[in-house]
């Protein structure tokens, strides 16, 4: 049974004396969005004072729970913050107090879940972590899940941690990054911080880079300094989203040059068909799909009917083979 922490006193503390580092012994917050909290504190003030404890440094205090409130106060420019001060409690009691205080009011992001498990791992037996702590965090009580989250806290690149905390990257993608060599994982973090990949594109990027790395015996850094990739990475004329698509396209070509040649040949073949205006055949990217698509723009039914009639007259359409067959023609 964890003893309830009872504050010894409540008093105003200089915010500059509150240690709000995310690496603090009781911290369970990472890259928090403080906008709503700051608005609330501006409008109605501080309703629930943080619980703090004296640090070894004279006059300084660790925030046991209420770190977000302390951070918000600092960002609002408050010089003083009303706090509850507790002296006598164990590290485990402080962590458990903070865990349940937070769990009652918000949902932990994946990085924060990793922080909780990493801090409690040396203090609790696995049975208590699996039966009590992981359900509170909304995690399955599986040892592999526990070990993955420990790795997220101790090994994941800093840029990727921020993306994971903000919901800009999936845990599965973070695991892919963890399974890379540390330097390659760092490069992934740098690329994701510069180019806006969506969640699906992130996993594609790592897969492609890993395949090319093994095929060509190159590090991720070396792949990205190749002429083809460098041209995309440094092209100032395309948007970040378009740069992501272009880079994936180049990587697919590097991974499978034969497929790239076949894909380009197929695009030339469809371009030579003399299709009606505003009619386009979409070839599956690098023949990764099993079907083509046709796009027709028209203003009314008569125009659509006319374009369909003209399409039927193009005998060369009959010579288009399935994507799989086309991929092996070249």
What is the annotated CATH architecture of the largest domain? Alpha-Beta Complex
CATH class of the largest domain: Alpha Beta
Number of helices: 16
CATH superfamily of the largest domain: Conserved hypothetical protein from pyrococcus furiosus pfu- 392566-001, ParB domain
Ranges with pLDDT <50 over ≥5 residues?
none
**Number of domain modules:** 3
Structural category is: alpha/beta
Radius of gyration of CA atoms, rounded to a whole number:
28 Å
Please summarize the sheet with the most strands.
5 strands, mixed
Characterize the overall form.
Answer: elongated
Mean pLDDT: 89
The first-to-last residue Cα distance is: 71 Å
Query: Numbering strands along the chain, what is their spatial order in the largest sheet?
Result: 1-5-3-4-2
Write up what this structure looks like.
- The protein has 3 domains: 1-106, Conserved hypothetical protein from pyrococcus furiosus pfu- 392566-001, ParB domain (Alpha-Beta Complex), CATH 3.90.1530; 171-255, no CATH class; 269-327.
- With 330 residues, it is of the alpha/beta class.
- The mean pLDDT is 89.
- A hairpin with a 6-residue loop joins strand 3 (51-54) and strand 4 (61-65).
- Helix 4 crosses helix 6, helix 7 crosses helix 9 (182-194) and helix 8 runs parallel beside helix 10.
- It has helices spanning 35-44, 67-76, 91-103, 110-120, 126-136, 143-155, 158-165, 171-178, 182-194, 199-216, 220-224, 227-233, 240-255, 257-271, 301-312, 323-327, and strands at residues 9-14, 18-19, 51-54, 61-65, 80-85, 279-282, 293-296.
- It has 16 helices and 7 strands.
């Amino acid at each position: 049974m964890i003893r309830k922490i009872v504050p010894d006193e409540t008093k105003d503390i200089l915010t500059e004396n509150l240690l709000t580092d995310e690496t603090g012994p009781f911290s369970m917050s990472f890259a928090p969005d403080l906008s709503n909290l700051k608005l609330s504190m501006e409008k109605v003030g501080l309703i629930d004072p943080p619980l703090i404890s004296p640090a070894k440094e004279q006059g300084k205090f660790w925030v046991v729970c209420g770190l977000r409130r302390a951070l918000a106060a600092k960002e609002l420019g408050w010089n003083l913050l009303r706090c509850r001060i507790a002296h006598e409690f164990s590290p485990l009691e402080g962590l458990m107090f903070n865990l349940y205080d937070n769990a009652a009011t918000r949902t932990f992001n994946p990085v924060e879940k990793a922080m909780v498990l990493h801090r409690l791992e040396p203090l609790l037996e696995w049975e208590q972590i699996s039966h009590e702590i992981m359900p509170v965090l909304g995690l399955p009580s599986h040892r592999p899940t526990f070990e993955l989250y420990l790795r997220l806290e101790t090994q994941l690149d800093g840029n990727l941690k921020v993306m994971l905390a903000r919901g800009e990257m999936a845990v599965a993608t973070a695991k892919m990054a963890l399974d890379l060599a540390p330097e390659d994982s760092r490069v992934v973090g740098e690329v994701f911080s510069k180019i806006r990949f969506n969640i699906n594109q992130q996993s594609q990027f790592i897969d492609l880079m890993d395949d090319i790395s093994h095929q060509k015996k190159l590090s991720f850094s070396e792949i990205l300094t190749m002429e083809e990739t460098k041209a995309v990475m440094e092209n100032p004329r395309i948007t970040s989203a378009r740069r992501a698509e272009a880079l994936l396209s180049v990587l697919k070509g590097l991974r499978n040059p034969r497929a790239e040649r076949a894909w380009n040949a197929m695009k030339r073949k469809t371009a030579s068909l003399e299709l009606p205006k505003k009619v386009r055949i979409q070839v599956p990217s690098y023949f990764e799909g099993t079907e083509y698509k046709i796009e027709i723009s028209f203003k009314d039914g008569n125009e659509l009917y006319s374009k369909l009639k003209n399409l039927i007259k193009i005998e060369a359409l009959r010579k288009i083979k399935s994507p799989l067959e086309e991929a092996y023609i070249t």
